[in-house]
Amino acid sequence: MTHARPKKIGLVALALTAVLAVAGCSDHDMGTTAPGASAPAANPTGSSSASAEFNDADVMFVQMMLPHHEQAVAMSDTLLAKSGVAPDVAALAEQIKAAQQPEIDTMKGFLAAWGQQETGGGMGGMDHGGDDGMATDAQLKELDQADGAAGQQAYLQLMTAHHEGAVTMAQTEVRDGKNAGAVDLAKTIITTQQQEIGVMKDLLARL
């Protein structure tokens, strides 16, 4: 009897040690799994930048820039359907479409990852006011009805204002945004569209 109790205590101690060791391993696993699940580097597809942290400025930027880009693509399609458009102007319209359509897809991916809705209405009916540069229904109708010569002039004028509005919106995102992917997109928009503004002003001066 004198040896049974110490043996029992020893077994209990071993059992507790095993339980604590398992618990310690579990805590360690949880601590490494959770950060790894949300860490951008853990996702080789690059989509992690969309699902990483974001704020209201990111959401507003994407929700406003998405229809803005959609309208730019629609305006470019309208111009490219006309005959008599100068090759340089047509090439610019194609360039704008080529740059903005992939960005549209990217922004839709951002909103889906963030669980946010698209605002819609990018084709017209958006008399926003302010400095976003969106064309009104009346301006879009003028562009649609103009012939090639008048249409290209209207297109360049509208698209210059359109780009200037986009640059302003993108600068706000760079300043206030939190999501790395959205901020990088804004920086790309600023660089690309400022260059295109210069080209459009040059074309307008030569038409």
Automatic annotation (TrEMBL):
InterPro entries: DUF305_CopM-like, Ferritin-like. This is DUF305 domain-containing protein. Residues 1-23 form the signal peptide. Residues 58-204 form the DUF305 domain. Keywords: Signal.
